[in-house]
Design brief:
It is built from three helices and three strands. With 72 residues, it is of the alpha+beta class.
Protein backbone atom coordinates (compact mmCIF):
# COMPACT_ATOMS: atom_id res chain seq x y z
CA UNK A 1 0.00 0.00 0.00
CA UNK A 2 2.00 2.94 -1.27
CA UNK A 3 0.04 5.50 0.72
CA UNK A 4 1.31 4.05 4.00
CA UNK A 5 4.47 5.43 5.58
CA UNK A 6 6.91 3.54 7.78
CA UNK A 7 6.83 4.96 11.32
CA UNK A 8 10.60 5.32 11.73
CA UNK A 9 12.09 7.36 8.95
CA UNK A 10 9.34 8.68 6.73
CA UNK A 11 10.12 6.23 3.92
CA UNK A 12 7.13 5.06 1.93
CA UNK A 13 6.48 1.35 1.60
CA UNK A 14 7.28 1.43 -2.13
CA UNK A 15 10.84 2.62 -1.38
CA UNK A 16 11.73 -0.22 0.99
CA UNK A 17 13.89 -2.99 -0.51
CA UNK A 18 12.31 -6.41 -0.93
CA UNK A 19 13.86 -9.77 -1.84
CA UNK A 20 12.90 -11.74 -4.94
CA UNK A 21 14.00 -15.21 -5.98
CA UNK A 22 14.37 -15.34 -9.75
CA UNK A 23 14.85 -18.59 -11.71
CA UNK A 24 18.32 -18.85 -13.21
CA UNK A 25 17.09 -19.09 -16.80
CA UNK A 26 15.28 -15.78 -16.44
CA UNK A 27 18.32 -14.09 -14.90
CA UNK A 28 20.45 -15.43 -17.78
CA UNK A 29 17.95 -13.97 -20.26
CA UNK A 30 17.96 -10.61 -18.48
CA UNK A 31 21.77 -10.44 -18.44
CA UNK A 32 21.65 -10.60 -22.26
CA UNK A 33 18.92 -7.93 -22.47
CA UNK A 34 19.47 -4.19 -22.78
CA UNK A 35 19.29 -3.13 -19.12
CA UNK A 36 20.08 0.19 -17.50
CA UNK A 37 22.91 0.51 -14.97
CA UNK A 38 20.68 0.07 -11.89
CA UNK A 39 19.07 -3.11 -13.19
CA UNK A 40 22.42 -4.58 -14.21
CA UNK A 41 23.90 -3.75 -10.78
CA UNK A 42 20.99 -5.51 -9.05
CA UNK A 43 21.60 -8.67 -11.08
CA UNK A 44 25.36 -8.49 -10.49
CA UNK A 45 24.89 -8.23 -6.72
CA UNK A 46 22.36 -11.06 -6.53
CA UNK A 47 23.14 -14.20 -4.54
CA UNK A 48 23.14 -17.52 -6.42
CA UNK A 49 21.25 -20.29 -4.64
CA UNK A 50 21.71 -23.81 -6.04
CA UNK A 51 18.46 -25.70 -6.66
CA UNK A 52 19.01 -29.26 -7.88
CA UNK A 53 20.24 -29.02 -11.46
CA UNK A 54 19.58 -25.29 -11.81
CA UNK A 55 19.86 -22.23 -9.65
CA UNK A 56 17.89 -19.30 -8.32
CA UNK A 57 19.16 -15.72 -8.17
CA UNK A 58 18.08 -13.88 -5.01
CA UNK A 59 18.00 -10.13 -5.58
CA UNK A 60 17.09 -7.38 -3.14
CA UNK A 61 15.97 -3.98 -4.38
CA UNK A 62 13.05 -1.54 -4.33
CA UNK A 63 9.78 -2.64 -6.00
CA UNK A 64 10.24 -0.11 -8.82
CA UNK A 65 13.35 -1.97 -10.06
CA UNK A 66 11.59 -5.35 -9.68
CA UNK A 67 8.81 -3.99 -11.89
CA UNK A 68 11.35 -2.81 -14.51
CA UNK A 69 12.90 -6.28 -14.59
CA UNK A 70 9.47 -7.88 -14.99
CA UNK A 71 8.70 -5.51 -17.86
CA UNK A 72 11.80 -6.76 -19.71
Amino acid sequence: MPEHVVANGGTTATELPVALDMPGRISDFLRAADLDDVERAVLDHGVTVRRGEGYTLRITTVPRVHRQLLDH
